[in-house]
Amino acid sequence: MQVTETLNEGLKRGYKVVVSAADIAQKIDVELDDVAKKANLPGFRPGKAPKGVIKKRFGQSVMGDVLQRAVQDTTSQALLERNLKPAMQPKIEVTSFDEGKDLEYTVSLEVLPEIVPVDFKTIDLERPKAEPGDAEIAKALDSLATSQRKTQKVEAAREAKLGDTAVIDFEGFMDGEAFPGGKGNDHPLELGSNQFIPGFEAQLVGKKAGDKVDVNVTFPAEYGSEKLAGKQATFKVEIKELREPLPVTIDDEFAKGLGFEDLETVKKVVKDQLARDYQRAARAKVKRALLDKLSDAHNFEVPPGMLEMEFQQIWGQVEADRKRGVEDPEHKGKTDDQLKDEYKAIALRRVRLGLLLAEVGRANDVQVTQDEVNRALGEQVRRFPGQERQVVEFYRSNPELLAQLRAPIFEEKVVDFILELAKVTDKPVTVEELFKEDEAA
After folding, report:
1. Which CATH class is domain 2-110?
2. Comparing C-alpha atoms, which of 438, 434, 437, 436 is closest to residue 131?
3. What is the pLDDT of residues 42-96, one digit of tens each?
4. pTM, whole model, 2 decimals?
5. What tens digit of pLDDT does each residue of 125-173 get?
């Protein structure tokens, strides 16, 4: 094998590889001998067919297999000898081969950059810390009580008001034609819950049981169906019944209805759940702050192919949103070129941080266990009740999907590793401050 470097520019590498005709011929002979031992051809005893017959019968397919393996093996050897770590799958192009002649091909690739992480012990971070107080627990109990409350039929002939549940039949029409998915019967709709399209529920307030109402609405621009997004529609609605909520007393009886011993037990469960929610929010904020500092502290070159792939993924989502009529308000007044520059900067940050975390994990032997992957798979399976077996088989037959489950687990473990080394100081904050979105989020 003869390897000649043709490109060495930044992270891009190019090579011309020549494998001698003698080497190829030897590999083909070895392969044909192996085929001959197993061949069962008419007119010959098993394994006794002449080599000329074997070559005529199997020569082309054997040559194809040998060439493919030769390219793979010699490419791997060339990269190994030069200690190159490809960022993506190398591009290989066979430029010359005829039977009895040398095999010539080119290899183009991008290599991973050399990454020298900063000393993580020099990173200072503040972790917001909030504790659930009586007010937060009471609010959570009120929300729980609201979700559990029962309703009773309104017997008096009164008008519907916010908080009532209207039991309705409805059918939606666009340009006079009924559209798929726009019909329902005996649907309980709590007025003021904002379950339906904006403006729908408000037009039922003030109506009575037995009324038939034409409700005119405009579907939101970001509505899930492209055929309906941003369009005007009329729903013919019949209010079949009004129901009003029964008052709920938050006491021991309420707790027993939830399966708990008493109200104090419910309060403890609610407090523990709120504490976990606050911890997750704090974790998200300290992670975001950490990634910001890591991004500022590292400026190594990234493989252009990886950067372009990440950008195309982001821009593809922008264009998909546009087709659905969804536009980020911050895009207003900006040209596509300006937006592309912004998203390229985001893509660069993502790729650089991804490479950095991957290198930190590799260098420090951060591992994702099979049990952790199985738990993540279990979470996916629970999203498809009744199809558990099919989902598990689908993931296990698609390694790339299992890799997608493994990647976020790996990232979180690397972040934990860095946070253990960084100087992290807890900062007491209010619940409002904890959940307030950062300006640069």
Report:
1. alpha beta
2. 434
3. 767 676 666 676 667 676 777 888 899 999 999 999 999 999 999 999 999 999 8
4. 0.79
5. 999 999 999 999 999 999 999 888 889 999 988 999 999 999 999 999 9
What is the architecture of the domain spanning 151-245?
Roll (3.10)
CB 391 within 8 A of CB 380: yes
Give CA–CA dist 56/134, Å, rounded: 87
Long-range contacts of 65-69 (CB under 8 A, 24+ apart): 65/31, 66/24, 66/27, 66/28, 66/31, 67/24, 67/94, 67/97, 67/103, 69/27
Query: CATH fold of 261-435, please?
Result: Trigger factor, domain 2 (1.10.3120)
Give, in degrees to the nearest 5, the angle at Cα 24 between 21 and 30.
Answer: 140
Q: What distance separates the 2 farthest-apart alpha carbons in the chain?
A: 101
Q: Residue 64 to residues 24, 28, 220: CA-CA distances in angstroms?
A: 11, 10, 57
Cβ 107 vs Cβ 75: under 8 Å: yes
Q: Which of 123, 114, 88 is nearest to 356 (CA)?
A: 114
SS3 for 126? strand
Q: Confirm if 274 and 132 have CB atoms less than 8 A apart.
A: yes
Name the DSSP class of 1: -
Which pLDDT does position 51 carry in this prediction?
Answer: 66
Q: What is the DSSP string of 267-333?
A: HHHHHHHHHHHHHHHHHHHHHHHHHHHHHHH------HHHHHHHHHHHHHHHHHHHHTT---GGGTT
- Residue burial 34-61, b: 16+ Cβ < 10 Å; e: rest: ebbeebebeeeeeeebeeeebbebbbee
**3 close to 15: Cβ distance less than 8 angstroms:** yes
Q: Where are the domains of the chain?
A: 2-110, 151-245, 261-435
Query: Hey, what are 346's tokens?
Result: 């985001």
Whole-angstrom distance, CA of residue 240 vs CA of residue 212: 9
Question: Rounded CA gap, 300 and 306, in Å?
Answer: 14
Q: How far apart are CA 400 and CA 396, in angstroms?
A: 9
User: Helices 370-381 and 399-421: crossing angle, nearest 10°?
Assistant: 120
Rounded alpha-carbon distances, angstroms, from residue 264 to 138, 143, 328: 12, 17, 45
pLDDT under 50: residue ranges of the chain = 439-440
CA of residue 318 relative to chain centroid, distance: 16
Question: Tell me, what's the pLDDT at 45?
Answer: 62
